[in-house]
Amino acid sequence: MVSFAGIVGRAFQAQAMIAVANTILTLVGMLILGIPHVMVLSLIVFVCSFIPVLGVVLSSIPISLVGLNEGGFELVLYVIVLILIIHAIEAYILNPKIYGAHLRMNPVIVLVILLIGEHLAGVWGLLLGVPVCYYLFTEVLRAEGPPAAPAAGTLSVARGDVSPSLTGGVPPSSGR
Questions:
Q1: Rounded CA separation 100/11 (Å)
Q2: How many distinct structural domains can be found in the chain?
Q3: What pLDDT, in 10s, does the model give residues 53-62?
Q4: C-alpha span between 10 and 4 (Å, rounded)
Q5: 155 φ, ψ to 5°?
Q6: How far is CA 161 from CA 112, 164, 171, 174, 176, in A?
Q7: Global pTM value
Q8: In 3-state terms, what secondary structure has residue 169?
Q9: Would 157 be classed as within a structural domain?
């Protein structure tokens, strides 16, 4: 039996991998754009990557301010384009693939769950949508109940005998 806490733990492991990938992509982009203080800004990106949706905005503000200070509005526009591209990669490629691999779910289903979760419950839907759906799929919907009794007049292959209704409640005779 899979516990819900274990599922949430695997989801946070997936989120940590996404945060690392997001941080590396942002670091490379900042280096290409010539943004200074990349280590501090990358640390901010990593921490904010654990905050769905709002984390992108929070981590973008310091990068944009440093870009404004270093290169003016033109560099800020490049920073915004960079962040939009990285966010699209994260949302449409990294999240479904990494969550899917960690929770053994189809990436398309993960993407749909993330989209619906964000729409219905905002940040909490993004944080807990995939683990809750995984738990529902694996523990609630696929839970096996007690085995059904054989229907009247059928053979019970598992036990190797004939059900009583077939023989009228009398054991089958052996000899004719």
A1: 10
A2: 1
A3: 678 889 999 9
A4: 10
A5: -85, 135
A6: 48, 9, 9, 13, 18
A7: 0.67
A8: coil
A9: no
